[in-house]
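Lab manual, section 2.4: Encoding a predicted structure.

Procedure: take the sequence of the chain (499 residues), apply the prediction step described in section 2.3, and record the output as structure tokens. A sample record is shown.
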Amino acid sequence: MDHVNVIIVGAGLSGVGAAAHLVENCPEKTFTLLEGRAAVGGTWDLFRYPGIRSDSDMHTLGYSFKPWTQAKSIADGPSIREYVNETADEFDIRRHIRFDHKVQTASWDSAQSRWVLTSTLSDGSTTAVSGDFLFMCGGYYSYDDPHRPAFPGESRYQGQVLHPQFWPEDLDYDGKKVIVIGSGATAMTIVPSMTQKGAQVTMVQRSPTYVVSRPAEDKIANTLRKWLPEKWAYAITRLKNTTLSGYFYRQTRSQPAKTKAQLLGMATANLGEEMVKAHFTPSYNPWDQRMCLIPDGDLYKSINEGSAQVVTGDIETWTESGLVMKDGTEVAADIIVTATGINLTVMSGIAFDLDGTAISFPETFTYKGMMYSGIPNMAHTFGYINASWTLRADLTAEYVCRLLNHMTANQQAVATPTLRPEDANMPTGDWIQDFSAGYMQRMMHLFPKQGQGPWRNTQDYKLDKKMIRRAPIEDGVLVFAGAGNETPALDSSVLTKVA
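Recorded output:
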């Protein structure tokens, strides 16, 4: 069995970024990336639906160490995929990737102070690799099983039905009538893109979502690049965007009514009051669920031009030729796209155990949003739901490198976040709080809990920089041990009290 210092699970945006941080900051560490698919890129290689793009600006979705230099700040999927692949090549990461390795189990061996991961290969055989430290970067949703509710009468429909996660690249929809069921970022990307290529599209949504239009190009960023070195221009733009987005999010929390009025006012200026009242006025406050970013008002333009329309309400039934809504509205379609969302998975669906005893993640507490109580030598990248994913991924990778170097310098083999007696009565909450989106609420009971102090997943970049980047490694919560020492066990009495 091969052995490395660090095993990274996933070769997408997070995993490649984690490997690059290791190359730069822990050059003496050996590592491998286990990737379940045959390509680099993760989400950005998997999704191929029309118009696939980021819903965050690339000056924050991009890595802290690799400037985004293209003119468009809201980038399309192929450009992001190219960016991730460029990073893999620039840091010589590709040779460390084991493709078509779908990880099934992760077992901690206390006697040897190492993780053993077993993977299934494309031919059905299995293989194993061991590592001193495990870095989970496999994303947070199922690649194989998207959220796909059953609809009444669905079997009657005679047209083509598809889900964006499994989009056929050769689909011909020029001149076709298309229904897109959904109101999230995927639906709002697909609708204008399909209209631009000749389709007549109806977005059928159960309820409205907040929509914000921004220029696809960041004029300030593009101007700065003309006068400053790329790294300086990128850093300034990144600071600008994180500051503004953080301020906006805090406004949604402190002044929700005012923020809602501003957002609806901007939508009204593009679509008119009647359209916004009927189809773009959510029942909840801004950022209680995800907001949708559209570049250059492309969705608005499709609606105003008449190539796209919106129908809001509950579906009564599918018919042979389309849908009938509960209010009696009939919508015809040659193709129905079920942009109904994703299914979250905990730790990529891998079965974890400590010396043969299965780990139940809902019984653990998150440590700074990236490690878990009682689980040694493991970190997990889980980005922001209210900001760019990579902001958090970079912070987590920075911390892992700092932790590994600290352990090497102090001849420590094991680091385990450990609940203290004083943590017994701390208030507890869900892994993600104050966020009512269905895709989160469906799965929150399967995720770790959070508490107070270091046992938080703040979802706040400003706070996380203090708690992760600037706080000392030795904090009395992360317990260190030498090789072969017994791993601190989950304190069942503490868990019973705080659960």
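Check your result against the sample. The longest helix spans residues 230-254.
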